[in-house]
Design brief:
The complex is a heterodimer of chains A (about 800) and B (about 250).
Chain A: E1 4-14, H1 19-29, E2 36-39, H2 43-55, E3 58-69, E4 72-81, E5 84-91, H3 95-104, H4 115-131, E6 138-146, E7 149-157, E8 164-170, H5 177-181, H6 203-218, E9 226-235, E10 245-253, E11 259-266, H7 273-280, H8 290-297, H9 306-311, E12 319-327, E13 331-339, E14 345-352, H10 359-363, H11 376-389, H12 394-398, E15 402-406, E16 411-417, E17 425-432, E18 438-449, E19 469-477, E20 482-491, E21 501-511, E22 520-533, E23 541-555, E24 566-580, E25 591-601, E26 610-624, E27 627-639, E28 651-653, H13 657-660, E29 670-672, E30 685-686, E31 689-690, E32 695-705, E33 708-709, E34 714-727, E35 739-750, E36 754-763, E37 779-786
Parallel strand pairs in A: 1-4, 5-7, 8-10, 11-13, 14-16, 28-29
Antiparallel strand pairs in A: 1-2, 3-4, 6-7, 9-10, 12-13, 15-16, 17-18, 18-19, 19-20, 20-21, 21-22, 22-23, 23-24, 24-25, 25-26, 26-27, 27-32, 30-31, 32-34, 33-34, 34-35, 35-36, 36-37
Chain B: H1 8-23, H2 27-39, H3 47-60, H4 64-77, H5 84-98, H6 107-122, H7 129-156, H8 160-173, H9 180-196, H10 200-220, H11 227-243, H12 246-253
Chain lengths: ~800, ~250
């Protein structure tokens, strides 16, 4: 019988009554009079049935030939439709449980319900209750037709909630029941003191527990340990009226404790057996340890494992399969079969999901560079750096990029998929500022600003973003008496290179209360900076140039820190050279940070002049795990270019930043903080007023222990001994004459406050009192520092 | 339709109100009414009209993603409707409108390109086919620009091999793009800089590669306005290649 084509003469629908629905069915089936089809079968029929299932929600569809007239044919579309869902009713379930279930069930009102949907729903409710500990529950589903709408009732009989009452071990000889029970993290016993926690039993959790138990044995030499039998059963307590209890029984065959006799590597051409043995870290005679082998073979966080030897050097297809062979007695041989594969390079590196942040901002952080050798470490480092940008949802980056190896040309294409989040910060606060009264602070920081977008009207949604620049604005005011405005901008990658460039503007004014002696002081600052990382002598070096302008105005206050009344201005050029190889920015344990800076305020007419050289050097040495010793020194000299006196920017020593905030303490001077002494206490005096020295010496030593380091809280207590002084000039200089202090403290990192340094130091040497608040005698003084305090 | 009673008459009413709002440019209101009209069922005679107007209202309201979905619904449900080609054209306009600037995620651009290709394949004779083709060129140009810019980014950071990978990928994927000759020139200049920054033993082969890149440039883009620049780079590479001590060059060649 050969296929023959016929023209469709008419189409009828069977199974629906309404005209409009019939038209709909025909249009979905897409079989129209005038078209030609093949009989007995045409592809169009299959398409039509599929379309009806998918789009018309019929539970059965069939296309039949009604009659054939010449080369024409009449078709009938026969459909069976299920009723539409009216209401879902629950019995025996709480409101909360119903809400949770709603999201899991495939039931939507108004949609047609097929029998399979009903059974599936029943099973979902059943397993939901089992997971919640109702092991005795049963669920039934019943349907009632109400007109053309279906009412579905899901009735649950929960039964009693069953908790694990007892875990019984059989066959454990080398480990106590107590030790083994701790491995069963998902199957805890019910304890009367943990009344707030429900110890529900789940099968999946129990399976995990059994694996963990065997691994525990495997890690301690028991290579052959296995669970011989496990049973979970209900026990009805003898006391009547009590709930039934669940008992878990585990029978274990421990087997002997194995030692490694020999490790044999096969297939390695790139590394010698010795190199691989060193990475594996297992020697003949060692007790067998499965987790140690896994870690040192496949993945250790510091990349010292065998796999990293290869995968950080391009061997993408590297594979390793250890095989353990029992030797008579209680020894094992480990055969490590290695497949090295070829060296791959990174191909294209794509970025997706960046709906706000421009591609170049992301790409510059990524260390997987096209054309360079494939490296797992480069991928991990890129992921970490992207997380640190704080522009993206962590979970979107955490899984790493999608990897598409191309075996023909030995390249690996990557796609980093990101999801944007906001990284902007707004801070509004009010505080009480001592003599100033109520202080209001408003600060906004845009961490992903786009200066390029400022002129583009469409980029303002709500502010231009995506170029990775930082912009912050801050206003602090107590009304008319004190105002402080700051604006700062940084482009961390100027012209696509890692050379930060930026500027800041600041303005502050302070006036004494009108009722007291009436004076006003004012400070305006502006600066522009650029920094460059150097390649030589090594890439820890950085240079920076800062151009600065300051204007000081002292009105109606004589002898304020020995400064002249009226307006003074300064222009400065500051050049810095620094090297920083600290191992951690907040709690360094090793490395050093050194910075030399030279500042020139040239003698331009109408401007003040000086030259200033500062050298700061911090060294850290690890003594033991988390314990480190540091030595910090600071030397400074400020001199005159023309021979005139230098009054501004002299060194005033003592105190902490918190004491000087908002009060114009040390106005016009270079404040150097020191533990154990109040602010401005140390340095030369003129008529009792601290005026600051021209030579600075600071020596600090510290023993720090990082006691706790978690994302929520870090705590590092320390003990310290400090010594410092500032001298009027070389004639006055005596490096043995120092103000000493010693004490203890702690650096704490809190999520909201950031770094907080609390210390308590004993100032050993007496000084002339600066104010009535401190008599200058040797004693203990406390300090609190917020923000960066290193 | 104030009282909300479900009667056959109110589908018509909701539809009429929706169309009226749409004609007056009140897209949000039009969307509400048309959605109501469609809630009465996709089988009613005015459903196709309501569906298409709904898609257009979303487009007018600049909710392009939703508009695209509604056009798709119209095209799939009402296959035999004569306005399907027009809806398909409006759908590609909608998706093209979603395409962001080149330096952001281009998933939407790629989807738009897929739809435009589909449209051109289905309706090659349509009077709007040339416009669709122009739209396709614009979007592909954006993708070419993205790759070209990545090349520049890497070149500026002196990651020359990566720069060459991206410049070359412009030529490979978008050979007819306006960025193609710029990219070829970029690959040439990155290669010259790469050779210059290389150790002496690798310079010869890398300059040779630069010379080969110039040959490709001049073959592919003989009348490009960038010819002079390319020629300068060629001269630099040629002179530098001559200056490489022959012994080291030979050693590298062996």
């Amino acid at each position: 019988q050969t296929a023959q084509t016929y023209e469709i003469l008419g189409v009828e629908v069977d199974g629906v009554t309404e005209d409009s629905e019939q038209t709909f069915i025909i249009s979905i089936a897409d079989l129209r009079p005038g078209e030609r089809v093949q009989l007995p079968y045409d592809e169009a029929f299959g398409e039509a049935v599929r379309g009806l299932y998918e789009r018309a929600q019929v539970s059965d569809a069939e296309i039949t030939v009604d009659r054939v007239v010449g080369d024409g044919v009449f078709l009938t579309i026969r459909v069976t439709q299920e009723p539409r869902l009216g209401v879902v009713e629950y019995e025996g379930l709480s409101k909360g449980e119903q809400d949770e279930l709603r999201d899991r069930l495939p039931l939507i009102r108004g949609r047609r319900v097929r029998p399979a949907d009903v059974e599936q729903s029943r099973l979902i409710v059943q397993s939901y209750l089992r997971e919640k500990g109702f092991r005795l529950s049963s669920v039934s589903a019943s349907q009632k037709l109400d007109g053309d709408r279906l009412t579905l009732t899901l009735a649950a009989n929960k039964g009693d909630r069953v908790e694990v009452e007892d875990v019984v071990f059989v066959g454990n000889e080398n480990f106590s029941e107590r030790t083994l029970r701790k491995r069963l993290k998902n199957t805890p016993e019910d304890r009367w003191w943990r009344f707030w926690k429900r110890e529900t039993f789940t099968q999946s959790g129990f399976e995990e527990d059994k694996d963990a138990l065997i691994r525990y044995y495997n890690d301690r030499g028991y290579y052959g340990a296995r669970v011989v039998r496990d049973s979970v059963y209900l026990r009805t307590p003898e006391a009547s009226g009590e709930d039934p209890e669940l008992v878990v029984e585990l029978e274990i065959d421990e087997g002997p404790k194995y030692h490694v006799r020999e490790v044999v590597f096969e297939g390695n051409t790139l590394y010698t057996d010795e190199q691989l043995e060193f990475a594996l870290g297992i020697e003949p005679g060692d007790v067998y340890n499965r987790s140690l082998i896994d870690r040192n073979l496949y993945y250790s966080p510091d990349h010292s494992d065998v796999a990293s030897l290869y995968t950080d050097r391009g061997y993408l297809r590297f594979n390793v399969a250890p095989q353990v062979v029992e030797v008579p007695g209680d020894s094992l041989d480990i055969y490590v079969e290695i497949t090295e594969g070829d060296v791959y390079e990174f191909g294209t590196v794509e970025i997706a999901g960046n709906t706000r942040t421009k591609e170049h901002v992301i790409r510059r952080e990524i260390r997987t560079v096209p054309g360079q050798t494939y490296s797992r470490q480069a991928i991990e480092r890129s992921v970490r750096d992207l997380v640190q940008l704080n522009y993206f949802d962590q979970s979107s980056i955490g899984g790493g990029p999608a990897i598409r190896p191309n075996d023909e040309d030995k390249t690996v294409d990557l796609t980093y998929s990101l999801a944007e989040t906001s990284s902007d910060q707004l801070e509004l606060s009010g505080g009480y500022g001592g003599s100033l009264g109520l202080l209001l602070t408003a600060k906004v920081t845009f961490n992903n600003f786009s200066a390029q977008g400022i002129l583009d009207g469409s980029a303002w949604k709500p502010i231009p973003a995506g170029d990775g620049q930082q912009l912050s604005l801050q206003v602090v005011t107590s009304g008319t008496r004190y105002q402080n405005y700051t604006l700062a901008f940084t482009e961390p990658w100027f012209r696509g290179r890692p050379t930060p460039v930026g500027f800041s503007l600041g303005f502050q004014n302070f006036s004494n209360s009108p009722t007291q002696e009436d004076y006003k002081i004012l400070l305006g600052t502006a600066q522009v900076f650029a920094r460059t990382r150097l390649k030589w002598p090594d890439d820890y070096f950085q240079t920076g140039t800062t151009l600065g302008y300051r204007i000081y105005d002292i009105d109606g206050r004589s002898n304020l820190y020995g400064l002249p009344e009226g307006v003074s201005q300064e222009l400065t050029v500051r050049q810095t050279l620094s090297r920083n190889n600290l191992d951690n920015p907040l709690f360094p344990q090793a490395g050093s940070r050194n910075e030399l800076s030279v500042t020139i305020a040239p003698p331009v007419p109408g401007f003040i002049q000086y030259h200033k050289t500062d050298l700061e050097s911090n060294w850290y040495a690890p003594l033991a795990n988390k314990l480190s010793l540091s030595l910090k020194t600071k030397f400074g000299y400020i001199g005159s270019l023309t021979g005139e006196d230098v009054e501004f920017q002299r060194y005033l020593v003592g105190g902490s930043p918190l004491e000087t905030n908002r009060n114009f303490v040390g106005f016009g001077k270079d404040l150097v903080y020191l533990r154990g002494y109040p602010t401005t206490a140390i340095g030369p005096r003129s008529e009792g007023e601290p005026v600051g020295g021209r030579i600075l010496n600071v020596f600090q030593t510290e023993l720090q222990y990082v006691a706790l380091q978690t994302p929520q809280l870090s705590v590092a207590p320390y003990v310290f001994a400090d010594a410092a002084n500032s001298y009027d000039g070389f004639s006055d200089y005596d490096p043995a004459r120092l103000y000493r202090s010693a004490g203890f403290g702690a650096r704490v990192i809190l999520p909201i406050l950031g770094l907080v340094d609390l210390n308590y130091g004993y100032g050993i040497d007496p000084f002339d009192p600066v104010s009535t608040r401190d008599d200058g005698l040797p004693k203990w003084r406390g300090q609190v520092t917020l923000g960066a305090g290193l | 339709c104030g009282n909300g009673v479900v009667t056959p008459g109110s589908a018509q009413e909701a539809y009429d109100r929706g169309v009226e709002a749409y004609d007056r440019g009140k897209y949000t209101r039009a969307i509400e009414h048309l959605r109501t009209a469609l809630d009465f069922g996709r089988t009613s005679p005015l459903a196709a009209d309501a569906q298409l107007t709904l898609a257009r209202a979303y487009k007018g309201d600049r909710q392009y993603l939703l508009a695209g979905n509604e056009y798709t619904r119209f095209i799939e449900f009402y296959r035999s409707d004569e306005r399907v080609p027009q809806a398909a054209y409006e759908r590609i306009q909608t998706y093209a409108a979603l395409s962001p600037p080149y330096d952001l995620d281009q998933t939407d651009t790629e989807r738009a390109i897929d739809y435009i290709r589909l449209y051109i394949a289905q309706y090659p004779e349509s009077p709007q086919a040339p416009e669709a083709a122009a739209l396709l060129t614009d979007l592909r140009e954006k993708l070419a620009q993205k790759r070209y810019n990545n090349g520049r980014l890497y070149q500026r950071r002196e990651l020359y091999e990566a720069a060459v990978v991206y410049y070359e990928s412009v030529l490979q994927n978008y050979p007819t793009s306006a960025y193609a000759d710029d990219a070829m020139l970029g690959a040439l200049s990155a290669q010259v800089e790469f050779a210059r920054a290389s150790v002496i033993s690798r310079q010869a082969e890398r300059y040779d590669e630069a010379l080969a890149k110039y040959d490709r440039f001049i073959t592919l883009f003989p009348s490009s306005p960038l010819v002079r620049e390319a020629e300068d780079l060629y001269s630099q590479a040629y002179d530098a290649r001559q200056a490489v001590p022959e012994t080291t060059a030979e050693r590298a060649g062996q």
